[in-house]
Every structure is written in structure tokens, then in C-alpha cells.
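Data availability (excerpt). The following record was deposited with the supplementary files.
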Amino acid sequence: MSHNTIDHPAQIGIHIQSGVTGAGLFEYNLVTNLNVGQPAFQNDSSSTFTTTLVSNSWQLTASDLLSQGQPVTADSSQTGNGNWATNGNDGNLGTRWAANDNLYPHWWRVDLHTNCNLKAVTIDWYGLPAEATNIESR
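Predicted structure:
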């Protein structure tokens, strides 16, 4: 599969379903407007279908999240569990930042590179997928 553009896929950009056998070369494909947490590529036959990925591009939907991808610092991180500070603003609700212990207080900071007039701040809490704290200015 080569030189294709898949724009705003409903579920998965490129999907190899379970039960497929053989091998495939996937090169120079562009999957755009992925929603946060939506996979661009998924091989459900990894034990029977070998894939080679070359120069593909996966792009998230445009976002009004000022913090996404900006530099961050934190007073500690659970590096052994992969819960790095950079996960706190990666746009993926499947990852997270966590402090290295359960002592209070801890902090996480993002550098927006400029002064901003914020209309709202949203915090998505780990373990509570339907819960978010929204702070809006009035």
C-alpha cells in the first residue's frame, strides 16, 4: 500500500484485521485528522502478517489546545511506569503524567511561550474517563 491519503477515518486509519496472513509494505501513506486516541495503524494479525512501515505520516485533528506538544516540567514523574511529564499534554487520554509518589503537593507546568488570555482550563482525571474538571472564566 503506497502513496495514499486517508482523511478523517471513522475508526482506524490503516487496519489489518485478525486472520490475515502474509506480508505488506506500507510506504508514503498519509493519515490525517485522527481524533485523540484514535490509531493511525493497527495490525490485529501481527503473528501471521508482517508489516514494513516506511515514511508514513500520522496527523491528529487540528486542535485549539494551546498546551498540546509544548515543553513541560514537573517536580517528579513515574518514569518506571512510563508516566512522564510529557504525557500530560500529548493529546492522548490513554497516557498520563503521574507524580512519583502519593505525597502532597506535586506540580506539573507547561510553557505556552507567551502570555495568553485563557477562556477555560480542562483537566481530565486519570481513572475517571467520563470526568473532567472545566474551569471557565466569566
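Summary of structural features: The chain has a mean pLDDT of 83.
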